[in-house]
Write a structure and sequence with these properties.
Layout lengths: L2 E5 L2 E3 L5 E8 L7 E7 L6 E6 L6 E3 L7 E6 L4 E6 L8 E8 L3 E3 L3 E5 L2
Parallel strand pairs: 2-11
Antiparallel strand pairs: 1-3, 3-8, 4-5, 4-9, 5-6, 7-8, 9-10, 9-11
Length: about 120
């Protein structure tokens, strides 16, 4: 059974940091490009960051570049998103996504940036 389980969301003050994790199971993790998406209330879901299966190539949305870092540990079947210098506009539900020959989604974790 395919599972993507996100963790690490929560409430953080502007300028703070938060780290998200996504634990994968039920598929060949290292073959899949992993992506983090987010969806804010009333807005469309948008891709935030992506990392190829071998971890050697990453990409970021302009809005998070130089603040967020995506990484993965194929031995642990886990992808991470380190978020620094958080802004209120980063508030959203963050989703883990895996894509290769199929596409899988996690259930999402809430990140709220507020003072």
């Amino acid at each position: 059974q395919v599972q993507l389980v996100e963790s690490g969301g929560g409430l953080v003050q502007p300028g703070g940091s938060l780290g998200l994790s996504c634990a994968a199971s039920g598929f060949t993790f290292s073959r899949y490009t992993m992506r983090w998406y987010r969806q804010a209330p009333g807005k469309e879901r948008e891709v935030v960051a992506a990392i190829r299966g071998n971890g050697c190539s990453t990409s970021y949305a302009d809005s998070v570049k130089d603040r967020f870092t995506i990484s993965r540990d194929n031995a642990k079947n886990t992808v991470y998103l380190q978020m620094n210098s958080l802004k209120p506009e980063d508030t959203a539900v963050y989703y883990c996504n895996a894509i290769w020959v199929a596409e899988h989604w996690g259930q999402g974790t809430q990140v709220t940036v507020s003072s």
